[in-house]
Amino acid sequence: MQTPRFSECNHPLIKSLFRHSDRELLKLFQQCPEQGKYFTAIFCRYSPIVYTLIGHSAPSPVQAEYLFALAWRHIYYEMRGLELRGNEGDPASFQNWLINMTALCINQAQLPPVESIGYSLQAAAPPLWCYLEQALELLPPVVRVAVVMAQTFHWSPTRIAAYLQAEGDTISPAQVQEALERGYAQLADNLPADIRSIYLGDDAGAPPAEMQAGAIADSESMVSL
Predict the structure, then answer these.
(1) Cα–Cα distance measured from residue 1 to residue 143, given in angstroms and rounded to the nearest whole number
(2) CATH code of 96's domain
């Protein structure tokens, strides 16, 4: 199974971090949660190993991509509290931990049928998906529901308004449209500035439509390990 290539690995922000050791990147990731480049650099460094391990275990390429993203999501959250043991200059310690985390994900994951998987690496690489998930969580509840329904289910403002009204929220289709526009702008603002630069371009405002539809839908369709 061919290992996918990720264009973010050639971004200047990421290439400038190649000289850092695993421990240094881990420490910077933990100390600077408002920046996404350190996790992205670790992803670029180790994505071939993780994908190779998963590729030999997943029944199909679609399920491999899905499990690959789930594994990196699990790694992302576990890294927040990770304390490496062993010699300071031992590069194998983090790599061994990463391999163990990948094996854990492979063993515990319950993969859905191919036809029910909506995730695509082309729509959202794992680092973007992780930070987009965080950005979604920061949206006001009604705005978040509107954004998710519009992008995941392709519902119109009228249908979203009808659903919210049935749930007890007094809101018109016009107000839903305003909530969507506000939500997309807030979603971009909630993303770390370097993630916007790496994945959306330096002059990014609201996320492009294709990123919204793919990455937001992916974020809502993922299941926790």
Answers:
(1) 40
(2) 1.10.1740.10
